[in-house]
Amino acid sequence: MHEARSFTPSPSATARSPWLNRPQTRRKLAIYAGAALIGVLVVAWIDGGEEPIRTIVQPVEVSANTAVGGAD
Question: What is the pTM of this model?
């Protein structure tokens, strides 16, 4: 019948980043990435948010030439 073959990654794949092939490292990396994402979201939630709308009141000078109903 068929003979059993085991999968072995190519040497170039393991030479690039052998530490990523370990399950503990991948799990730690995922935990740190998740914690960083949660941290950013918490900071954005605390610091962000809506500010109350306030009216802008300041005097504006209008010359006679630009006034409504002025001379043509």
Answer: 0.43
| Distant-in-sequence, close-in-space partners of 14: CB < 8 Å, separation ≥ 6 | 21
Distance CA 32, CA 3 (A): 42
Cα–Cα dist 26/33, whole Å: 10
**Residue 39: half-sphere exposure toward Cβ, Cα within 13 Å:** 6
Q: Which residue has the higher pLDDT, 64 or 48?
A: 48
Of 40, 39, 36, the closest CA to residue 28 belongs to 36
Question: Residue written as tokens 């605390």?
Answer: 46
- Cα–Cα distance for residue pair 30/42, rounded to 1 Å: 18
